Amino acid sequence: MDLVNARSLATLLLSLLLATSCARLTGLKKFGDRGKKGPPPFGASGIPAPLRGGDAGTPVAPGGNIPPSQPLQVTPESDIAWTDPDNPDGGIPDLVPLLAAPKKGPWEESETIAKQRSSRENKPLLIWFSDSKNSPGCKGVSAELFADHAFDSWARENVIRLKIDAYVRQDDSNLSIGESMDKEIRLKDYVASMKKRYKVLGHPTFLILSSSGDVVATYKGYRSGQAAYTWGLFRQGQSLAAKSNAEWRAGLMKKGYREWQDRRGNKVFARLENYSKGQLYLTEPDGLRSRTQESKLSDADQAWIKQQKAARGIE
Predict the structure, then answer these.
(1) Residue 41 per-residue DSSP state
(2) Is it the case that residue 311 has pLDDT exceeding 60?
(3) pLDDT tens digits, one per residue of 30-54
(4) Of 253, 270, 303, which one is at a domain's C-terminal end?
(5) Count of structural domains, the chain
(6) pLDDT at 42
(7) Domain membership of residue 301 as a residue range
(8) Are the beta carbons of 130 and 146 closer than 8 angstroms?
(9) In sequence order, which residues have a C-beta less than 8 Å from that of residue 197 and are 6 or more positions away?
(10) Residue 236 near residue 157 (C-beta atoms within 8 A)
(11) pLDDT interval class at 246 (50, 70, 90)
(12) End-to-end alpha-carbon separation of the chain, Å?
């Protein structure tokens, strides 16, 4: 075969190879187009007809079968309170003497009592972490601010005060040596747990809490001559906590809580859990339950009960 004929044969073979490749590619493209243009094999829902009764179905929205606009409704643990599961009404204290219990002084020493007063009286809680023996700042704020009559009047009206003193002293002569040592250990453990919970590292440290227990302000340290400045900080924190208190109470009122008042003017913020023949069982936001007689409540509360009974057809 001469050179010309060889070149002609090579050209012919290359042309046949290219034509075959193009035909294959064209066929694949047409096959893909047919697949895209055709309807989904199981309808819009993507579910085979035997499993959906034969209708075309509707598209399934992302997120499963729980609508995102309807969150799960869970009863808060704070709304469930029992004194004794076997005897729910046993040991429930009477409300009137509970509210009339004498106050120890301007500064409470028990966090439990201070928080109860904060909730009942609708006042923020001012906590003073002190070391009355070793801290010059604590001695200074005590003499320059806390001993001032004007500050004391403001504090009685606007806050509940709680003092946590790192200097624990036991001077109760009615206790034996063993009892005194045991009580001192318990007090030191209490102070240590409070400081750990609120992350207090130095003295003095001041915290202002809303009635719900949220810390709205923290102030550290005190220098001589800063009485007016420190008081101003307390006023600012009290104002912030008062707004938080209002929001917190508004939320609880939607759950049935309201303010009750006895014949002496003592108040408690609680929810009526049970009423029977003039006796009421109340639950405070912290879960404390108490009972009282309708006749021991204020005229306004008795009128509210009468209104509620009438609405329910109760005589």
Answers:
(1) T
(2) yes
(3) 444 444 455 555 455 444 444 444 4
(4) 253
(5) 2
(6) 46
(7) 256-311
(8) no
(9) none
(10) no
(11) very high
(12) 125
